[in-house]
Amino acid sequence: MAKKKAAKKKMAKKSSMKKTASKKKSVSKKTPSATKKRVTKKKSVKKKTKTKAAKKKKQKKKAAKSLGRPRVTGDAKLEQFFKKDYEARQVFDFLRVETVKELEEFGPDEIVEKLTAPMMQTVKRIRKALAICNRCLKKDHKFALEFQRAILQEK
């Protein structure tokens, strides 16, 4: 009996194989437009997977740009953190900041502008005072002449 059952299973497998083979043949007998549609469907599926992969890469790049966990708290005093850097402490005094959080509110360009603005104003005052006395700094003769003309026009 076991032999009969095994024989029946083999016959069933063979008949199912023939059915799938006949189905495959019928697919190949279809018009070329049907096969083209299937190909285009496969391409669209591939495009979707590419976009998902691209999104994952973008997410990884965003995560890579993170600085990570801060090693210093925002409430940390700058004087303690920059004990040995006297010039940095002078900048903090000029900006009137005491904590890291307060310092983070400024951009690097903004800090440079705030630090150099008083010096720029001082140099302008020096140039004007020298121009009034008919004097000028090295390579600053043009400014002195223009300033004198502006003063004369006001009078």
Question: How would you portray this structure in words?
Answer:
This protein has 155 residues and is mainly α. Among the domains are: 71-106, no CATH class; 119-155, no CATH class. Helices cover 77% and strands 0% of the residues. It contains 7 helices and no strands. The termini are far apart.
Structure summarized in a few sentences:
This protein has 7 helices and no strands. The chain is mainly alpha-helical.
**Shape assignment:** elongated
In terms of quaternary structure, what is this?
A: single chain
Number of helices: 7
SSE-based structural type: mainly alpha
Q: Mean pLDDT, nearest integer?
A: 78
What is the helix/strand order?
Answer: HHHHHHH
Rg for CA atoms: 41 Å
Quantity of strands, as a count: 0
Q: What is the terminal-to-terminal distance?
A: 129 Å
Unreliable stretches (pLDDT < 50, length at least 5) are none
Helix content: over 70%
Largest sheet: none
Strand residue percentage? under 5%
